[in-house]
Amino acid sequence: MLRALAVMAVVSLAACTEPFLVRIPTLQAPAVGGTALALGTACSEGQECASGRCVDGVCCSEACAGACEACNVSGSEGRCTAVPGGTDPAHECGPKGTVNVELDDFADVHVGACAGVCNGQRACVFALADTPCGDARCSGEATTRSFACNGSGVCVASDGDCGRYACIDGSCRTNCAAPDHCRAADYCNVAATQCAARKLDGASCAQPYECEHDVCANPTSGATKLCCATQCNEPGMSCDAPGAVGTCSCGSITCANGCRLFYKDADSDAHGDEFGTLANGRALAGCVGTPMLTQGGFNWYPNDLPQKGRLDCDDNDAETFRGQTTGFDHARAHPVVGMSAYDFDCDGVETKTLAAFGNGCQVCTLQYDATILGANFGQCHNTGQSSPCCAVHPDLPNHCGMIRDPATQSDGRTGFTCGFDPATGQCTGKFVREGFAGNVECGQAGAWKVCGDCVPDNCGPNWEPCPPPQTTDPTKKMRCR
Question: What does the pLDDT average to over 43-52?
């Protein structure tokens, strides 16, 4: 005699979708003897029922294995009936998988959004087509990747083209107000709030981003700028020369990669005249890529050549140029209106390059007499007071010395002074063994003094006076740049 077995099969969809159940009842003969259960009565096996079928937990009149039907529908227990619309008690209308979804999409996909419900007529009705089933994202500069249901329970991934507009936050812009609202090959016509194709060389423009080469050059005359193939905004350059509109020209020279100006080095200091122009004859036209021109017995340098371009604020004085680090004890040989006499580096100020004593000669020693400084016993001090310039010697334990000079990495020695600023209590990091005794102006003479060596015999442990500085040059001049 056959025994009844109700089998519940669990099927898992692709892309980790929600499981749904398929009921597979089998026909069973009722048990011999005893009282068979009537239709609609709760059961666990088919042999308990007079009908021989136990479906959905009740004795049923038939197998009831179709879609969206059940034998335990309220009010119709025991008879196979369509389940109410809008429900899915057996999870038969779950999502049906994905199409075109790639590994990179998994974090953005929500397949469950495509699931459906029973329609009350023994069939599933799924989420409507175009129902979002994932978070849209930008898959490129002007392309989107979106996810939508197909109306049959499947989530479909698709790519979209934004045309001239940029993809921002998963969607295509439909207008523009800034350059980044359009793809790189196009530009934003702000007045029309529309993205448009970049303009060809020679076309009128207002901003560089409108042009295919990102150059909007000034015209030779008039107010209309033109798109140009190369940079063309230095004095003397034009992009509207007859027969060469859209190509940068420098006077009579037209170059394949664009032209540029080269600046005269009249004083042979390897720096071009920063005031040179084609009009004043202190600049020449040349082609991009040429490192230097030689003409009229002079070298001419382009502005972008490191350490040589338009760096000379006085091209009649070889000692004067931007970046000059040498100091001089004489005024500039070629005065220029508006420039200081000792401004050799063209920065607008006169900078002294020789030192002056700030504190005189100092000694840095250990304090051994506890009656003088009490708690400071055994610490490093200089000239009777604590100073951040005086510290334990970095290489000699239990010895004091001036802090190591950060510029030269040389050790400070007794007899040297360091740049201790009493106003701030900080060490300036400058270590001076020699210098002017007081303030001396640029080009003026003063007494140049040198500190003597301070040793234990004449300094002692308690900061007895150091040997005074000795004058080595009473008429040394201050050097400036």
Answer: 93
Residue 54 has which token pair? 């136990």
Instruction: Give dist(CA 155, CA 10) in Å, integer.
Output: 21
Picking from 104-108, 170-174, 194-198, 385-389, which range would have the lowest pLDDT averaged per residue? 385-389
In this prediction, residue 356 carries a pLDDT of 72
pLDDT at 456 over 80: no
Dist. CA 341–CA 334, nearest whole Å:
9
Long-range contacts of 22-25 (CB under 8 A, 24+ apart): 22/90, 22/92, 23/55, 23/56, 23/64, 23/65, 23/90, 24/65, 25/53, 25/54, 25/55, 25/60, 25/63, 25/64, 25/65
In 3D, which of 359, 404, 405, 398 has the Cα closest to residue 382?
359
Q: What Cα–Cα distance (Å) separates residue 46 from each residue in 72, 269, 274, 275?
A: 15, 109, 104, 106
Looking at per-residue pLDDT, the higher value among 29 and 448 belongs to: 448
- Our count of domains for the chain comes to 1
**C-alpha distances in angstroms, 97 versus 113, 127, 328?**
11, 13, 84
pLDDT(10) > 50 = no
Of all residues in the chain, the percent with pLDDT exceeding 90 is: 45
Identify whether 401 is part of a domain: yes
Q: 172 phi and psi, to 5 degrees?
A: -80, 135
pLDDT surpassing 50 at residue 214: yes
Give the residue with greater pLDDT, 106 vs 347.
347
CA distance 114 to 85: 17
Structure-model confidence comparison of residues 142 and 286, the more confident one: 142
Q: What separation in angstroms does the CA of 368 have from each of 362, 373, 392, 398, 402? A: 18, 9, 14, 12, 18
Q: Is residue 412 part of a domain?
A: yes
Which is nearest to 176 in space by CA: 164, 194, 199, 197? Answer: 194
What is the C-alpha to C-alpha distance for residues 250 and 220, in angstroms, rounded to an integer?
11
Domain carrying residue 437:
364-477
Contacts within 8 Å (CB) and 24+ apart, 284-287: 285/236, 285/237, 285/250, 285/251, 285/252, 285/253, 285/259, 285/260, 285/261, 286/250, 286/253, 286/255, 286/259, 286/260, 286/261, 286/262, 287/253, 287/255, 287/256, 287/257, 287/258, 287/259, 287/260
At 19 the pLDDT is 41
Q: What angle do CA 286, 289, 295 make, to 5 degrees?
A: 35
**pLDDT bracket for residue 344 (50, 70, 90):** very high
Please state, rounded to an integer, the average pLDDT across all residues of the chain.
78
Partner residues linked to 261 by β-bridges: 285
Residue 459 carries which side chain, given as an amino acid letter? Answer: C
